[in-house]
Amino acid sequence: MALYRAHVLICHGTGCASGGAPKVLEAFKEELAKKGLEKEILVIATGCHGMCEFGPIVVVYPEGTFYSQVKPSDVAEIVEEHLYKGRIVTRLLYKEPLSAQKVCHYKDIPFYGKQHRIVLSNCGYINPDNIDEYISRDGYQALGKCLVEMTPAAVIDEMKKSGLRGRGGGGFPTGMKWGFCAASPGDKKYVICNADEGDPGAFMDRSILEGDPHAVIEGMMIGGYAMGADEGYIYCRAEYPLAIKRLQTAIKNATEYGLLGEDILGTGFNFTLHIKEGAGAFVCGEETALMASIEGQRGMPRARPPFPAVKGLWGKPTNINNVETWANVPRIIVQGAECFAAMGTEKSKGTKVFALTGKVKNTGLVEVPMGITIREIVFEIGGGIIGDKKFKAVQIGGPSGGCLVDEHLDLAVDYESLTAAGAIMGSGGLVVLDEGNCMVDTAKFFLEFTQRESCGKCVPCREGTKKMLDILTRITEGKGVPEDIDRLLYLGNQIKDASLCALGGTAPNPVLTTLKYFRHEYEAHIFDKKCPAGVCQSLLRYSINTEKCIGCTKCARNCPVSCISGKVKEPHVIDQDKCIKCGACMDNCPVGAVVKG
Amino acid sequence: MVVETKQDVRSMVQEITAPWKGKHGGVIPVLQETQKKVGYLSREAMEVVSEELGVPLAELYGVATFYAQFHLKPRGRHIIRVCRGTACHVRGSGKIMDKIMSMLKVKENGTTDDLRFTLEPVACLGCCGLAPVVMIDDDTHGRLTDDEAALQKFLDQYA
After folding, report:
1. Residue B67 with chain A: CB contacts under 8 Å
2. Which member of A102, A171, A244, A591 has the greatest number of CB atoms within 10 A?
């Protein structure tokens, strides 16, 4: 490999790429060529750095200088000042939201300070399209160790000792799951990677696949060796074209290196890997539905047992793990189970990647040790609430999850504590809500999603979620009746008990937990016909403050239904019967005389 | 992308199905490829897939209508996907959807009369840091507002 005096790493995760990272990369190449520095400085497109809010992100090594929101027009200055003259471009450094200080180095940014990046250790550091860079970071060393030094049983033992649990949401111990599949009789077995990440607000798996695809591939091969499977499938959402492209490149390169295919590393172990593109059905994240989809059928879950470990894909023993679980495997083998088990809480080991989004200052991807508190995630890593509004809740675990409120801020996050609080770990979506979010509207949003995605097999899920949604819609429109709360509770519990798969089994959770912690908001909608957060449109009322109104007629001219009357230079009035509550008057008023409430 | 005659469709679909004959698991990849080439899953195309793979038409129809990705009607040249994931929802994607609907005079999942745009909601595009997000074809556009002039400028890029 050629030697370079500096590396310029440009994030090409989806966030930064859509923010213009490819153009920034082009500009760097151009500027460096102009200065004749292209042989001294290497420009690399990397996977996600996790700080999507501040993209496109550029990191310059060896110093680790962290530039945020870099535009192509900034590149000439970085090349001239930093790379040519050695002076850091302070203007483009990341500004820490809490202290408003500029932070120079990657490692000093508080967003990363509390994190413990194991699964994400390569994301944003290596070029995901270059297998050599993965190998130079101990890549495929774990595979070699397993194939040469360890028996399949020893690999499974190591996984059991590590305490790794399924990161897709269920939290089932991975070593035990592998043990079941390994013990299943049969000469043909499959391993599957579940990359059908469909939870709204979650993008962990996407970033791992885009930033470090080889880790997932290596993990699957180790699993294949341990369980006696020689074929694997990665079932990836079609909505993730970049992840699919990077996986294709990774598989191609690994095959060329003899790391995939026949007689791998001369040990007689064979393994082939296929990518299956999903076709847009959330329920396919459920393992039996996912297998049906690979087989080319409608993706509908079936009853278990038989479990996939006994009768899975095409009737053969099959093991399914999610992206993050597979990506943990090589690290556990290389660093040892003890090292992994030393992190986390008693029953939940290692780290968890969360997609931190919503009303928080630093949105992005964070990897933290199990046992960290919600307060640390939201206020220290996340930098607190946008506009310093009041924290209201975090919605964790996506449409299957629930809300955590003030009293849970110091809860140590692990599988058990979250379940006890009425939420779930889920796949790791963490959406922060502030006082401006209506909880009834939030619950309705999640239910709309699960209702639409219900596959229709079980009546309680298919019809029940629809009825619940009707009730919620009615409540947000101000037509709720007093019995509605009891009806929601009754229906919710029935749907949970009577559905076959986890989609129906968890769909009522957002409603049930918001009812538990925010019952007063439901009551305000039903009894007082008011939305305390001012979100539910039908319950809003716009009026004009006659003292402030200057009679400019702007509101009347912009009203789409002409319901505002008044003479020039005299206070105007809104006809409440005709008003459609679009808010155009409020947006257009130059003096803030229109009030909502 | 636009296929003219029935014969074209037949030979095109036959080409797509050929590598999957006698193998299992081909239904979804074949339908995906067919849709990509033909633009949508026309009755003619589905009939050829059924014949070639030996899968009953009813079963193919069942699969095609189950997944959100498949379309049985012609679609616009450009697909606008308005994200309604959680993060986008709380940052106002609903208003953007309403605005684009009124600008293009289409409903959700509708196609403009000139076949220029098809407007769809999508569960989550996975770039929540940029919320609210709209994807047009393969381009992701983030941090949008419901300002009509800005949206118009942004739609004008797609002829």
Report:
1. 279-281, 299
2. A244
